[in-house]
Amino acid sequence: MKYPVLFSISTLLLIGSLSVLPVYAADITQVDGLEQADLPPNEAAAAWEVPATLRLDPTDFPKHAGRGALVPQDIVLPPLSAAELQQWQQTADEPQQRRTRIGMSRAVPNTLGEPDTWQWLAVEGGQVAHLGWRSPDAKRIRGQFVLGNLPAGVELRFYAPHDPQQVYAYTHDTLKPQIIQQAGEATFWSPSLAGDTLRVEIFVPEGIAPDALALRVAKLSHSVLDPLTGAVQRGTLEDNAVACFVDMACATPEWQLRGSSTALFLVVNEDIEYFCTGELLNNTRADGKPYFLTANHCVDTAAVATTLNSFWFYENSSCGGSDARDKVRRADGGATLLVTDKTLDTTLLSLNKIPAQGVLFAGWSNRALPSGQAIAGIHHALTLPKQFALGTFVDYGTFAASGLVRDPQGEFAVVRWLNGATEQGASGSALWFEEQGKYYVNGVLSRGTSSSSCEPPDGIALYGRFDQAYPLLKPWLSP
Asked: Which UniProt keywords apply (predicted)?
């Protein structure tokens, strides 16, 4: 699927002068990247990752059947209608934006009954119930839970029936960063799981009765695309074309290291699920705080930030390889919104979880770029592993009634691709440049055009300017 060209390089070059002036020349800061292995042990160990297991393995259900236990009965929604499927082939309002719409929320009937009527089974220290919801043909699924009451000691463990070893466990305290108030109710979104069925194991400790719980699922997010497997629901996004991509594993080792700061992430925004790209940034204290840079049109409110699930190291080990899916590490738990700006299409988050090993906290620079500066992009796009692009910074620009015009004080950096390209899913990825053997982030991908030819690529991209966003980001990145 090719998207309409929003602007052209020739038009941009004919308007205004070529000069580019630093916006904040009196406050130029450049921070080098930081490898996670170089963090002090106590800060590195705080990254995340406490493996969880189910208290009652689903494979043991048949053993309990003779004692009256039942295999969980999933609440099953009807398949998506023809009209709902057709929605996925319609062009978005701003097709040049590089976020990708992959999921839609569906209302769930509340047919579970009261908690004391659920099928409870005794386990060590208490009892558990397994509940499930299914949206047929979904490639990924997650649920919006309404939390009326979750007493201390109660635990929720989310899993997919095809992979019960991959478990995401929460208590009321660990859910707090993800709980938001909507229409007077406390809600949170579960982790996103592959497949069309979401299950939860609810553990109630001894001394707490099930009727002390108040919990239900209001919505399911039905994803028609799984960016980590390439699975696409028939009749939805099948016509999306792959542009002139370059696998990250085909870049130099120096650039591949920088890719360790880049993650794909999923969020729910006004009942639509999107995937975008973001960048883990270092700060002047080099203390390992998980500051994450992305686009405003991907995450623009605190509520959206709470729904974030990030996926790291989705990249091949070698050029031409195909092991990316075996390397993926994920971090659920959402994020905290620190600052966002629509004009510059820039958002800074603090992630609640990151992988415990292997990530890079990217370096950054708030200086203005000279015309002709060689640049690079590292990003996720469509259903491919991490991608790489090389290009040239053309000029700064802003939008006027006549379209994009050259403006040294404009809010966007305009890039022309020479090798590789960006496509849907790359929104929020970083603009990079290299200087004297060091590598710096200098912008956030906002939008662009697809290449109409791959010899050479003729796509262009607009990045929100890091130097103009810096006064907003400074309290965290340069405290």
From this structure: Signal
Q: Residue 119 and residue 100: Cα distance in Å, rounded?
A: 39
Instruction: Report the range of poorest mean pLDDT among 26-30, 205-209, 335-339, 340-344.
Output: 26-30
Neighbouring C-beta atoms of residue 209, cutoff 10 Å: 11
- Tell me how far CA of residue 442 lies from CA of 23, 393, 446, in angstroms: 13, 11, 13
- Residue 338 has which token pair? 């620190």
* Cα–Cα distance measured from residue 249 to residue 386, given in angstroms and rounded to the nearest whole number: 8
Mean per-residue pLDDT, 324-353: 95
* Whether pLDDT at 47 is above 70: no
- Please work out, in degrees rounded to the nearest 5, the angle formed at the alpha carbon of residue 371 by the alpha carbons of 366 and 374: 75
Q: Cα–Cα distance between 20 and 409 in angstroms, integer?
A: 8
pLDDT recorded at residue 46: 44
- The mean pLDDT of the chain is 86
- On the 0-12 / 13-18 / 19+ scale of CB atoms within 10 A, 276 is buried
Record the tokens describing residue 118, joined without a space: 């659920």
| pLDDT value of residue 90 | 54
Q: Is the pLDDT of residue 337 over 70?
A: yes
Closest CA to 57 of 159, 170, 195: 159
The answer to whether the beta carbons of residues 422 and 475 sit under 8 Å apart is no
Query: Which residues make Cβ contacts (< 8 Å) with residue 60, sequence separation at least 6?
Result: none
Torsion angle defined by CA atoms of residues 342, 346, 350 and 353, in that order, rounded to the nearest 10 degrees: 110
Name the amino acid, one letter, at 325: R
| Tens-digit pLDDT profile for residues 206-215 | 999 999 999 9
279-298 per-position pLDDT tens digit:
999 999 999 999 999 999 99
The Cα 326–Cα 303 span in angstroms is 31
